[in-house]
Amino acid sequence: MLKLKYIWNLPRSMKRLISLFIDSTFIIASYYAAHWARLGDLMWLPKYDNEQVLLGTLVITLFAFTKLGLYRAILRYLTFHALYVVSIGTIISAVSVGLLAYYLNSAVPRSVPIIYGAFLALSCGGIRLIARVLVSQSFSKGRKNVLIYGAGSAGRQLALALRSSETHKVIGFIDQDKTLENTVLMGLKVLKLEHAEKAIDRSNVEQILLAIPSASRSRRKEILDELVHLSAEVLTIPDMGDIVSGKAKIDELKDVAIEDLLGRDPVEPQQALMEANIKDKHVMVTGAGGSIGSELCRQIIKQNPKSLILFEQSEFALYQIDRELQTLVKNEELKTKVYPILGSVQKLERLANVMDTFGVNTVYHAAAYKHVPLVEYNMVEGVLNNVFGTYYTAQAAIVANVESFVLISTDKAVRPTNVMGTTKRVAELSLQALAQETNHSTRFCMVRFGNVLGSSGSVIPLFKKQISQGGPITVTHPDIIRYFMTIPEAAQLVIQAGAMGKGGDVFVLDMGEPVRIVDLAENLIHLSGLDIKNENNLLGDIEIKYSGLRPGEKLYEELLIGDNVQKTAHARIMTANEDRLSSTEFDALASKLKSACDNFEPELLRRILLSAPAQFTPTDGIEDLVWKQLTSDNNCDIHGKV
After folding, report:
1. N or C: which end of the chain has fewer CB within 10 A?
2. CA-closest candidate to residue 283, choices 402, 381, 375
């Protein structure tokens, strides 16, 4: 094998000389072999003056091969085009034998050119195929053996692309199409799923590549459920739309999208609802640099607003989303003006000034602290930002005569067990109170949904990072469940729900079926080609450890408080009628909350939140870190005095 690699690594000019020498040998050998096959021996061949015919044929054939580009072909990437070239060259060579024999009056039997052509085609073509196999084998060390799921056009394109790959070697296809059962495509066997496990063990297959870019998410989930028990890592090719548009190549392999594990097919957005509050309007998004806020901006700018105001407290987050949108505006030649504005939603004057200056028509309020444990540890800031940030933004909208105001709420606002959920429910109450007032024309509504995939704080990126580091994966509780939705779908549904708002509406998004977090972790481990390490499998790769519920965390989340739910014009958007406070009652509640925050009284703040109509039932004590440190220091002082 080392000698072969030495030959493969020779300079290109040397390889061409070797090819010329080998072809010359085959031309001469084929010429005499044809005569031997025709005449039975070569004893009387010299008297027919064959040397001149042979010499002329040799020169013409080598010249034809050269002109046809046979010696420019690289053996490692040899295709059937090279065999086509050999065939054309062979025909030219065989015709040359006949013509030269005729004009030189050489007694070459008439059948010799045909026999010679067959021998030459077999020898010149065969040696190149053998060399290609040897080259492939010598360079195959270290390549991963893979199976391709899907023997359709995408699967065949992928197999073709990977033929010249230095990292992957395709062993065969997996396909459930019965018409392809026990067939061979491109020299590769098409296996049924039942036979895939044996093939994986026999050929040491490391990866299964999903080549089904047009399949729906529900179909992908069915396939992943069938593959999850196999010992190979599962990867996928990009979406067909990205391949066709040139944004991605078919052999750009990537991890299985987590939305495929959920099997939830998105519903096509209703264009009329998408445009209603955006097209030719001035739109403002608070928290524009966050995971939800930034996706809202991406969806909004597609609907051609006159201007998009990005309101964000984080300078870096604002810089990132502004740069992305400005690039999009330039590349797509959009007319939308994008304005990056630094500011805090806790400053009423700043909010009102921005909305009034830019003539804002629609506000999407996504600015909030959403991480449950962090808000538990900083409860005063959580109340100030989530409750008063929403209240001030809504009041500024009224002052600036904003037409529509949409609050991004959460399922954690329903029967909350933590401060974050409670603050979001109180924020909802503030909008419902303002919606009842008749001295303004602003329409308020709120959209409530669960976890979104890939958002800041999402478990999915954390699990993938833990797997890449060799584990363990940390899950809070074996029975914990969550609803999940992709960020683009959530943003589209928020925009559509906002367009249906009449005043004080609480919209709830259909999140599909809840998912056990431990099931999600197990599937990610299996799809990475790894085994779960537990008491029954001590030699496994990744262990799942349970860390216990974090402060304020629920085992399961709800989306509705009551059962009074109504359908809307959209299949995945519902509306709920829930208890409200009058503006006078909310003002009284807000005054108490503000006083407790300003004086830093977490104990009083807890009592006020418990008395509010938010159904707050905390699972833990006060977890505010500053307050705990203060009370700890006070206890130490008292103990010291005693």
Report:
1. C
2. 402
Q: HSE, CB side, 13 Å, CA atoms: give it for residue 280.
A: 1
Return the structure tokens found at 133: 């196999």
H or E element, residue 184: strand 184-185
Q: Is the pLDDT of residue 589 over 90?
A: yes
Rounded CA separation 285/302 (Å): 15
pLDDT (tens digit per residue) in 78-112: 556 667 777 788 888 888 888 887 777 777 777 88
**pLDDT tens for each residue of 395-435:** 999 999 999 999 999 888 888 889 999 999 999 999 999 99
From the list 88, 97, 78, the residue with the least C-alpha distance to 19 is: 78
**Residues paired with 342 in a beta bridge:** 312
CB < 8 Å & 24+ apart, contacts of 175-183: 175/149, 175/150, 175/151, 177/151, 180/151
Q: Which two structure tokens, joined as six digits, stand for 562?
A: 């009551």
Tens of pLDDT, residues 304-359: 999 999 999 999 999 999 999 999 999 988 999 999 999 999 999 999 999 999 99
CA separation for the pair 504, 447 (Å, rounded): 11
Q: Residue 1 has what pLDDT?
A: 45
Compute the distance between CA of residue 313 and CA of residue 381 in angstroms, rounded to an integer: 14
What is the arithmetic mean of pLDDT over 40-64? 72
DSSP 395: H
Evaluate the omega torsion of the peptide bond into residue 472 and state whether it is cis, within 30 degrees of 0. yes
User: Angle between the 389-399 and 348-357 helix axes, to the nearest 10 degrees?
Assistant: 40
What residue spans of 370-458 are helical by DSSP H? 372-377, 379-383, 389-399, 419-435
CA distance 635 to 642: 11
Residues pairing with 484 in the sheet: 451
DSSP letter for each residue of 478-531: TT-EE-EEEHHHHHHHHHHHHHH--SSEEEEE---S-EEHHHHHHHHHHHBT--
- Torsion, CA 426, CA 428, CA 430, CA 436, rounded to 10: -140
| pLDDT band of 642, cuts 50, 70, 90 | very low
d(CA 246, CA 253): 15
CA distances from 188 to 24, 182, 191, 251, 426 (A): 34, 10, 9, 18, 62
